[in-house]
């Protein structure tokens, strides 16, 4: 999929069509300190000692049958208005194997 680096789009802040810079949002690594995580509890002084804290062990997500089945990713474009410098997101992504900015 070829995407232009800059396109004219409606800016919801300026409330008119302006030139926008297009960029693909980069996926950030998931944090291991999420609310219910064992590591969060451990870092806060809870969950001491050995054992699985009453949790049932399950295999890693990558071991599940359905993971990694899709060969394409949805695009997640960020549009930055060149007038007010504010950024807004693409409403819904389009499936594409590769995104190329031209
Ligand atoms: Zn704007």
Q: How would you describe this structure in keywords?
A:
binds zinc ion, 1 helix, elongated, 102 residues, 6% helix, two-stranded parallel ribbon, single chain, mainly beta, 4-stranded antiparallel β-sheet
Main sheet record: 4 strands, antiparallel
SSE series: EEEHEEEEE
Q: Between the first and last Cα atoms, what is the distance in angstroms?
A: 10 Å
Instruction: Count helical runs.
Output: 1
- Measured by DSSP, the beta-strand proportion falls in 25-35%
Radius of gyration: 21 Å
Bound chemical compounds: zinc ion
Q: What is the strand arrangement across the widest sheet?
A: 2-3-5-6
General form:
elongated
Task: Detail the poorly predicted runs.
Answer: none
SS elements, strand count: 8
Summarize the structure.
With 102 residues, this protein is mainly beta. It has one helix spanning 38-43, and strands at 2-3, 6-11, 16-24, 73-74, 77-81, 87-89, 95-96, 100-101. It is elongated.
Tell me what the structure shows.
The protein has one helix spanning 38-43, and strands at residues 2-3, 6-11, 16-24, 73-74, 77-81, 87-89, 95-96, 100-101. It has 102 residues and is mostly beta strands. Strands 2-3-5-6 form a 4-stranded antiparallel beta sheet, with no helix packed on it. A hairpin with a 5-residue loop joins strand 5 and strand 6. It starts with a strand and ends with a strand. The mean pLDDT is 87. Bound molecules: zinc ion (ZN). Residues 11, 13-14, 18, 81, 83-84, 86 line the site of zinc ion.
